[in-house]
Every structure is written in C-alpha cells, then in structure tokens.
Amino acid sequence: MNKKEIQERLKKYAIDIVHFSEGLPANSGFNTVVNQIIRSAPSAAANYRAACRAKSVADYIHKMHIVEEELDETMFWLEFTVGLSEALRPKVAHLWKEGDELLAITVASIITAKKHR
C-alpha cells in the first residue's frame, strides 16, 4: 500500500467516524464522545498527510507517533461508546476493525522508519 492509498484510507476513516458520530444520541455522555472522536480521527488523517511531507526521517517518525496517538484515542472513544451502549457494538465493529488495521500500518511504518534511520 502506498502513501496516497493510506492517505485516502485515513481520510475515509475520518469521514466514516464523523458520520457515525452524527447518529449518536444527544446526551451528555455521547456528546463527550462526539466532541472527542470528531477531533481524533480527522487529526490522524491530517497528521499522516503532514508525515508524508516530513523534512527528515526523524520528523516523519515524530509525526507518525502523533498519527498513532490519534488513532489510539479514536479507538478508545469507540470502546467508550460501546461502554455507554452495548446496542451500538454492531455499528462500531467495522470502525474498530478499520482503526485497528490503520493503527497496525502506522506502527509498522514507524518501526520500518526507525530501522532505516
């Protein structure tokens, strides 16, 4: 998978997360989820795009660590959503799977970059 494909996949994931969050109930618990998750998923996509323009391997690694953190945060909010309502598990499942795959790709990229430093 090349950088452009990963960029597109992360962007689609962020859009899917935003669409998912728009369907959550309007109460204080879910409002917290919405406020956080609509920041973390798009941030992962934006930071990956920035990593692709890194000025050095060290800069790339630093930016990829931010992508990793933002994806992990998104995963937390998905878990939290299911904690608030088990009935949402089926809607979360595909987002969880995609987030987990994107996180694995990110970590593998960081490891590879560190080896080539």
Structural class: mainly alpha
Query: Helical segment tally?
Result: 4
The mean pLDDT is 97
What is the overall shape? Answer: elongated
Low-confidence segments, ≥5 residues, pLDDT <50? none
- CATH homologous superfamily? 23S rRNA-intervening sequence
Main sheet characteristics: none
Work out the strand percent: under 5%
Kindly describe this structure:
Helix content is 85%, strand content 0%. The protein is an all-alpha fold and 117 residues long. The chain has a single domain (3-115), classed as Up-down Bundle (de novo design (two linked rop proteins)), CATH 1.20.1440. Helix 2 (28-51) runs antiparallel to helix 3 (57-84) and helix 3 packs antiparallel against helix 4 (89-115). The longest helix has 28 residues, at 57-84. The model has no long low-confidence stretch (mean pLDDT 97).
How do the strands and helices of this protein lay out in sequence?
Elements: H1 3-22, H2 28-51, H3 57-84, H4 89-115
Helix pairs in contact: 1-2, 1-4, 2-3, 3-4
